[in-house]
Amino acid sequence: MADWRPMWEDLGVSLKCHDELIEALGKAYEQFFLSRANRPKAMEYFDFVVSEAHGLRIKELLEFKERGGFVLGTFCVYVPDEVVTAAGGLAVGLCGGAQISIPFAESVLPRNICPLIKSAFGFKVGRICPYFEAADLLVGETTCDGKKKTWEILNDYKETETLVVPHRKDEAGRALWRGEVRRFAAMLDERFGAVPSLARLKEAAELHNRKRAALEALYEARKAVPTPIAGLDALLAAQIVYYDDAERFTRKVEELAGEVRARAGDGVGVTENGELARILIAGAPMALPNWKLHALIEGLGAVVVCEELCTGTRYFHNGRVDLSGARSVDEALDTIADRYLSIPCACFTPNRERLESVLELVRAYKVDGVVQHVLSFCHDYALEAVRIERALKEHDVPVLTVETDYSDDTGQLRTRLEAFLEMLEK
Ligand code: BJ8
């Protein structure tokens, strides 16, 4: 394996903290992924990506920049990939799923904000994440208050551009968001001298359409009974989509989806003990390397068959952007903006679409029970959990809402999950 330390040092990464992160990550990966039998062979690629997430992938980004490209570090599924690609750039999700960076964040930020925000912010303050250091610009959004205000402070450490995401999907909200996407394109042009032309927007739309369709095909294959792939493996693919090269990721996920379909055709399930309780996880995203809830649920003998998360179905929600009829850059940008606006994030009000989407996923994936994933201090998902819980109960769907962060609260969580899964068996 190559020695990436000189590259990390050049980027200004704190090697001591980074070593600790890599060591903890390696142990968790061995425990949750590599030690499991009966995984699809195509998962080997994703194992490789994780092993090289801070090495080879960072080198690729630096080489891309040497060839004249630019790299944006992002925190949300609302950043329109098509516009970035068409302008000659590349967007990567930033680290934000680990406890190790939180003490750095808490030396600056109040403690009572969500762990995802604190972890991401701490990765920058502690200089632990090479993606933060390799990025030319960070792109935040105003989805929730925690994020909106944190990006102001993050801007003191690294330049951060913030996209204003509306909170209603009415005509005024649509007009605001279309304006934001146009402003974003103009900003990329001004800053990086890269005009996203109509032809390049169309090409980029095809690339990202294929990528989202590939991930959706993998999720489709998980509808089979017995389920042919562990939730942990599928979640990993949904996390890696934020980091990997779009073209290569698409190919590899198509391969994985093909293998998973073949397993389903042969009746191969993830365990030899027959079908397990099928769980849908809904709620706040699980940024890499947040695998806690899946590991607990699957460790207790159930299987996660679907994630209604931004590291899950929300990533490919209404995934196809059709630019075939667009006659100008502005028309194309509006069409792109409309697709992103349709994503049912809890920051919107009202948000009937998300409720309907959860109920539809329960039906389509033959779900036995729903676990709602709420990150501590996340008001949007905590409050939306109330209505979702009510709707699920009205449809006689068992539901458990758990609030968690990145600390080791597994004892408490395990007790609640055990009781929930026992109840499903009765
Ligand atoms: S589109 S879900 S990625 S905003 S968990 S930071 S909401 S306090 S992450 Fe998200 Fe975009 Fe929406 Fe998806 Fe705030 Fe809640 Fe924290 Fe959250």
What do these coordinates show?
This protein has helices at 5-11, 15-34, 43-51, 56-66, 81-86, 102-106, 115-125, 130-134, 145-154, 171-192, 198-221, 231-240, 246-265, 292-299, 329-341, 352-364, 379-394, 410-425, and strands spanning 70-74, 89-93, 137-141, 160-163, 278-283, 303-308, 369-375, 399-404. Helix 10 (171-192) crosses helix 15 (329-341), helix 11 packs parallel to helix 13 and helix 11 (198-221) packs parallel to helix 15. Helices cover 53% and strands 10% of the residues. The chain has a domain at 5-28 and 39-196: Rossmann fold, CATH 3.40.50. With 426 residues, it is α/β, with parallel strands linked by helices. The chain contains 18 helices and eight strands. The model has no long low-confidence stretch (mean pLDDT 96). The structure holds Double cubane cluster (BJ8).
Describe how the helices and strands are arranged.
Elements: H1 5-11, H2 15-34, H3 43-51, H4 56-66, E1 70-74, H5 81-86, E2 89-93, H6 102-106, H7 115-125, H8 130-134, E3 137-141, H9 145-154, E4 160-163, H10 171-192, H11 198-221, H12 231-240, H13 246-265, E5 278-283, H14 292-299, E6 303-308, H15 329-341, H16 352-364, E7 369-375, H17 379-394, E8 399-404, H18 410-425
Parallel strand pairs: 1-2, 1-3, 3-4, 5-6, 5-7, 7-8
Double cubane cluster binds next to helix 7, helix 9 and helix 17.
